[in-house]
Amino acid sequence: MRRIMAGEDRIKYLADAIRYHRELYYNHSAPEISDSEFDALWDELTRLDPSNEVLHEVGPEPLPGTVKVEHMFPMRSLDKGTSDEDIVHFVTQSTFGGKQYLAQPKLDGSALSLEYVAGNLHRAATRGSGERGEDVTLNAKQVANVPLRLNEAIDCHVRGEVVMPLEVFEQKYSTVSPNPRNLCSGALRQKHGDGKAEASDLVFCAYDVKFPNTPPEATNDSELLSWLQKAGIEPAPWEVFDSENLQEDMIQYTKKWSEKRSSYEYEIDGIVFKLDNLDQRENLGMTAHHPRWALAWKFPSQEAYSVLLDVDWQTGRTGAVTPVARIAPQMVGGVTVENVTLHNVGEVERLGIKIGDKVKITRRGDVIPKIIENMGASSDADLLGRFHADGSEFTGKISAEVIQIPKICPACSRDLIMEGAFLRCIALECDARTSRALTYWCRTLEMDGIGEKLIDALLDSGLVNNIADLYRLTHSQLTGLDRIGDKSAYNILDELGKTRTIPLSRFIHALGIERIGPEVGSMISQHFTSLQNLLDWVDTGTIEELTVIDGIGEKVAKIFKEGIEKRIDLITELAEIIQVENEEKAATGVLDGMSFCITGSLSRPRKEIALAIKNSGGKVVGSVSGNLDVLVAGDKAGSKLAKAQSLEVDVWSEEQLFDKIAETKKGPKTLFDYDR
Description:
- The protein is an alpha+beta fold.
- Helices cover 34% and strands 20% of the residues.
- The chain is built from 24 helices and 24 strands.
- The chain is globular, with a radius of gyration of 26 Å.
């Protein structure tokens, strides 16, 4: 009987999968699935669990070993579409009332933010998590068309995509990388000119600009793109739509670009449509994940056929054992593919697939494809004319076999258990889990120079068996490893030393408990305030005690408690070696328990107003609903004000808000308690 994945199991799988593939995409430039597959995971999770925390995270934190940059203006993701109907819905529903739209090709490279101060390039940063990226200024200055000085002495943040011309890729790099996008990311993030590509071979194409102070006069975004051109920065090509047949013209635009995609000078994977009017954008606002006024429309998937030759099984950090399909080499979109993820046992069963079957695979952009359909038994003819990526002829043979679902862990040989559609190794001592847990700990705490290769070497040598052992390492032990000299050993010990004192919130996050990211870790740490209080709760407390925290449901609370219980010996051992600092309670004040939405033109920056609300105990949300307590409205409040009035939500002016805040002096000072 075929297993049906339970609802909670499916939600957990989707959340884990989204985090995993987002990490590969943004931080490693090594995606395993196509954009369309990722979008399908996202859409399904949105349908099943719209409040799931992973949907409100833009991306993973930047990798360690780099200078981190807080984005003044977050670099958000965009809502996605793939059909003509999605465009119609965007125009008639999502942005109802829009009269003019802007379109640009969706360049497939690496996102970059250029910060100019008085017209001079001050800093360049990667997208990272959307809130926080990596400082890549030195490499960005090497990009040929990034100006060190604008034609106007103004403060601004220019957002765009760094891409590699396909002609350059074919001439210089096609033998060292499967696609230009990976090279873009590597060239920006290389530290010592040790990347596969040179930053000077890249091109920057702008798509947005933000102003921390007074912006130039502009009604529409298209005017700002023209301003960028005059300032000395070339935007990606754009087109404005303002006819009576908006949807039809925009659909025709996608068809035009679909035809010219293969001949365009850069890789693109779709079209970005944006409402052009800036005031209308302000009124529409944002969700936690994306602006309501933009749509990333993506090209249809590319498909091809191959033969399933074998299936390997791999154990991940959480203990999930996943199948990887080995297929006969197949060229898809200019890339030879031989490995395809099968995700989990449930996917194998859904496809009804066997070794030796002919399979349909789909690929979009430059990522490893997915098997989407089983075409039945293959024949010898299906293997003819195939070549490996190095040009050598494929000589494999067909063997018809049933896929064997493993009963023991491929990493530690311990028994596996079945959870819904997932195979899982529950042994914390598992070599694969230990390796990934150690790597996750070091990455979360941003330790420079302590990566997967060093972790594996430490495990292989027997010097380390768990996280606590990292802090027992000596200089002589490290220099005894291959390729570790005196300087490297001291650097490793220095990095470990920096994390001998860490806040409770980072400690919780770094443990690598499923679904416990930085945001949830912070909420939990503010609730318990100390590690001892947390451990006391694990011993005697209940799940219900944790669900009182806003945003944490019974499911997450249960996962967290079980995760701590499984790691209790490790936590006790770590507590004897490192210092876990107590966490301060969240700010309290006159606005405790109240939710606020901010809209309209105000005298103070919204970030400052939001900070004042939070420091007085309130919560700031992005949309108006019946659960909202107060709408803080300035001039030109627009649709949010109308909706709040229709729902009988209290509406305060900026002055009313700060008069209310002035009634209490609890909590830390806000920016407004100091001389302005």
